[in-house]
UniProtKB/TrEMBL annotation:
Superkingdom of origin organism: Bacteria
GO cellular component: membrane
Topology class, membrane: Multi-pass membrane protein
Localisation: Membrane
Protein's organism: Allobacillus salarius
Listed SUPFAM superfamilies: SNF-like
CDD domains named in the record: SLC6sbd_u1
UniProt protein name: Sodium-dependent transporter
Keyword field: Membrane, Transmembrane, Transmembrane helix, Transport
InterPro entries: Na/ntran_symport (IPR000175), SNS_sf (IPR037272)
């Protein structure tokens, strides 16, 4: 038996965990979700969700990985043989997500390059679906789009290259470069954005509290949903990463640091994005609060931001490059973490080397991801993303927390394990959050999603 790989330093682990958490969700998802769900008032349900679900679950996942020292299937299986499949379910979801996350990063690589000459022209939406994704040419439907295919291969070479080098020499080194670089680039973007004309209008629109909204269940579901996705919990990631911690590492403390770092980045992104939107509104004679002006997701990054860049008074290419390079760095560190879940699980289950597991598991993911680099790939991506986000993730989290908190040895065992290495002692807050609040919220979320699907 080989010695289990281990992080070189505590900071290495923290940067890797933050690298996983800080991703596209912080940059393009959080700002729009917060805006649509109460603006400034959203911070109340959001903080509540962070403290009653996000951080407690993160502590739970760190403890499971640290105690059982295995990939998600092996660690959950260590609590009870009957839980192993929950780990495999999470690994499968991560595998699917990795196939399309890579594609989005590939787009960002190309857009970083397009930034210099604003190659997207004036009709940025038309450029995205037309020239770039070639979606408007049904005659050729299904064939590979070279402008997506080439950067996609590049992304997989980088990610699998990092993973082959292992935990300390690969994942840790990559995050030690990517995350500080991301912090610097993103700060520059935010500073530039808030110093633009109109920035204040954008920030006003963002922070304007709509108190009526926080009475609605919908808003609370959105807050919990954002926290789960944003902290990468229920994806097998945090269990896998914490399985490489040294015996004496503080778990609870690390979970608080990861959680607050991710939320700080999210808040910073909200400020940057809305300052830029305020600027664009002023430049084009619109209002941020106009119906449909604020968008999230793919449209925000690849249609709205190019438009913002077109309006920049000074060095637009540099601003654009910084923005898309940030997406690439944030995305890569997340993609590395989701891919590591199946690399680790497969290598343990079949007793094969990391290199072989990367070749088979990573190779298969890369091959499948080529399907999204075709005409119509965006439609495929949207559909898969919808099902994964609405059912896969909530279900995986629900199964995990219910199994661990209600069955087998329950939370007591994990609590004493965490308390034996941490200087923060877990008590009733932790057990109530996981045993009651999180299962109720996830269960309610599931029902809501099914209801909205039917109607
Ligand atoms: N947590 C990441 C984000 O906020 C997204 C992510 C989800 C990454 C699942 C890996 C796995 O963008
Ligand atoms: Na995040």
């Amino acid at each position: 038996m080989n010695e289990r790989s281990q992080w070189g330093t505590r900071l290495g682990f923290l940067l890797a965990a933050m690298g996983s958490a800080i991703g596209l969700g912080n940059i393009w998802r959080f700002p729009a979700v917060a805006y649509e769900n109460g603006g400034g008032a959203f911070f109340i349900p959001y903080l509540f969700a962070l403290l009653t679900a996000g951080i407690p679950l993160l502590i739970m996942e760190y403890t499971i990985g640290h105690k059982y020292r295995g990939s998600a299937p092996r660690s959950l299986g260590g609590i009870s043989k009957g839980f192993e499949w929950i780990g495999w379910w999470q690994v499968l979801i991560s595998f699917v997500i990795s196939t399309y996350y890579a594609v989005i990063i590939a787009w960002a690589v190309m857009y970083a390059y397009f930034s210099f000459g604003q190659q997207w022209g004036d009709d940025t939406g038309g450029f995205l679906t037309g020239n770039f994704l070639e979606m408007t040419d049904p005659g050729k439907f299904g064939s590979i789009v070279p402008s997506v295919f080439i950067p996609l291969i590049f992304i997989w070479v980088v990610v699998l290259g990092v993973l082959v080098r292992g935990v300390k020499r690969g994942i840790e080194v990559a995050n030690k470069i990517f995350i500080p670089a991301l912090a610097v680039l993103f700060l520059l973007i935010v500073i530039r954005a808030v110093t633009l004309d109109g920035a204040l209008d954008g920030l006003n629109a963002f922070f304007q509290p709509n108190w009526n909204q926080i009475m609605s269940g919908q808003v609370w579901v959105a807050a919990y949903g954002q926290i789960f996705f944003s902290l990468s919990i229920g994806f097998a990631i945090m269990i896998t990463y914490s399985s490489y911690l040294g015996r004496k590492s503080d778990i609870t403390n690390n979970a608080f640091i990861t959680g607050f770092a991710n939320s700080s980045f999210e808040l910073l992104a909200g400020i940057g994005v809305f300052a830029a939107l305020g600027f664009m509104a002023m430049a084009t004679g619109q209002n941020v609060t106009d119906e449909g002006f604020v968008q999230g997701g793919i449209m925000l990054a690849f249609a709205v931001f190019p438009e913002i860049i077109n309006q920049m008074p000074f060095l637009p290419g540099v601003f654009g490059f910084l923005f898309f390079a940030s997406l690439v760095l944030a995305g890569l560190s997340s993609l590395i973490s989701i891919s590591e879940t199946y690399i680790a699980a497969v290598s343990e289950k079949f007793n094969i080397s990391r290199t072989k597991s990367v070749m088979f598991g990573g190779g298969l993911a890369a091959l499948i991801s080529i399907a999204y680099a075709t005409q119509g790939g965006l439609v495929l991506l949207d559909t898969v993303d919808h099902f994964i986000n609405n059912y896969g993730v909530a279900l995986a989290g629900l199964f995990e927390v219910v199994a661990v908190a209600w069955f087998a040895k329950g939370l007591k065992d994990l609590q004493s394990h965490a308390n034996s290495v941490s200087d923060i002692s877990l008590g009733a807050w932790w057990r109530v959050s996981l045993g009651v609040i999180t299962p109720v919220v996830l269960g309610y979320m599931m029902l809501q999603n099914i209801k909205s699907e039917i109607s």
